[in-house]
Every structure is written in C-alpha cells, then in structure tokens.
C-alpha cells in the first residue's frame, strides 16, 4: 500500500456510508418503475407519496452540484429533485441550501477544493457527499445530512504527495504546510459564528492559479474581510489598523517580488500571506496560525534578527 493510500485510509471514519454506484443500479431501476407506475392509479399514487418526506415550502431544497461527473450520480440527482420537489441550480447563488460534491475514490467524505465548495462553506450551507443523494433516493426518505457532511478537502497545491509550491517559497519558509488534505468544519460549527476574516484588511497582489482574483476578493468579503483595490489604500489603513495583510500566490512569484514583500514588512509591518491561507481558514472557519503561510525572504539583505523576533510575535489584534 502506498504512503498516500495509508494517509487517506487513516481518515476513513465513516465507511458505513461507502457505497458503489453499480450496486445501486437495480434499486434505481426499481425506483424508476415504481414512480412511473404510480401515476396509473390514484391509490398507488397516494401510497407512494406517503413514503416521501414532505418538505414545507419555506424549507424548499435548492441543490447545487460541484465536481460531479459520474453519469449514474447525475441520474440520481435528477431523481432526487423529482422525488423531493427540490430545485436544481447549475450555478452557485445565495439561495442554494445544499451543495452536493463528488467524492474522491479514496474516501466518501473527501472531495476536491472548488470555488463552489468555498462559497458554500463561508455561506454556512450544507456541504454533502453525493451519497446523500444516492441513499436518500434508494431509501425513499431524506436521510440526516449530518451523516454525509464532507470532512476533508484535497489541497490542489499538493497532489500525489508532490508539492507544486515553488522552490523559492520552500527555501525561504520551511514552515509552509504541504498536507495532502485539510479538515473541513461541520455546518453546526459554522452557523452563527463570527466570520473568520471579520475586520481584517487585505490587498490581493499579482495573479492566482486556481481561483480568479475577483472570486478570492468576494470570498474574503463574504468572510467578513475588507479588500482594498490599491496597495496604497492598505498602507494608509495601516496607520490606524494593525490587521492589514497582502495576499499573493506562491506559485506566481520570483525572488524579486519576494524581496519586495519582505521590504514592505520591514517598513510597514504588513505581512504577505500565501492565498492557501485564505482557503484553509474558510475550510476550518477560523483564523489559523499565519507563520506557515508567510511569503518573506529571511535572507534578504535588510532582514535582521530584530525582524525575526517581531515576526514570531506577529498576530492579529482585536
């Protein structure tokens, strides 16, 4: 067994929900037959409807899907919407109540990180495995969503146990995190909790690989943060607020840019963080330690031990 397989097998704490789509095909056909014949007589219609959970109009299900490509799962998704009078939204909107995600083959609670996933997490929505749809159809009733919540998300900067983080950042920040997967907070933890970036100020610098700069800014804003359009606006804000940060992608910088980030920290005490910090704070729905995500060249000519000591003590205030 490979090292990666061992890592993911150690996280499989909900194997009771593992299920193969092939094994569900007979049940799906049987359900389709039942629904098609139920319209032939009033008695059979009434009988079949009693097995379905009645959903009040004010609690209408609005389903959105992310990273689902399996044709059988799509069939179940359509059947689910028919059975429970759910509305399907192809794009993410604030009205979505449940995000259904395609699971990784190694775990039924593990998925890939997508923009929709981050949007659902920060909006305090249900983020559920595709197996919630499948099993709710086959059992003829809505199953408790708590039993199908996503608990881990794959980090796109680390795939196949190989880091795509640049050698530059690996050399200057040995604390940078390279976990294959990241824990995801459950909905009960996220609901009615202060958003993670409340009253923090950011400036997004440069280009980003996985998610567009506009989308990242929207995520930060939804999470309670304030995004400044210009670096000078952030520098002016620093005079009256300590919680100011620059966000950049470690994949898209060189030593010249890294030295500029270091100089800004030395002169203005504004730290630059890798964008993965934003993603992981949203997944955990809380502020994490910033040290592993700092983009700074400690070998820079103006960097001193005094800077190092201040850096170790650096933390958001308020």
UniProtKB/TrEMBL annotation:
PROSITE patterns: BRCT. The keyword Chloroplast does not apply. One of its GO terms (cellular component) is BRCA1-BARD1 complex. Keywords: DNA damage, DNA repair, Nucleus, Repeat. SMART domains: BRCT. One of its GO terms (biological process) is double-strand break repair via homologous recombination. Residues 86-150, 192-295 form the BRCT domain. The keyword Magnesium does not apply. GO terms for molecular function: ubiquitin-protein transferase activity. It comes from the Eukaryota. SUPFAM superfamilies: BRCT domain (SSF52113). InterPro entries: BRCA1-associated, BRCT_dom, BRCT_dom_sf. It is found in: Nucleus. This is Breast cancer type 1 susceptibility-like protein. The lineage of its organism: Eukaryota, Metazoa, Ecdysozoa, Nematoda, Enoplea. The gene is Brca1.
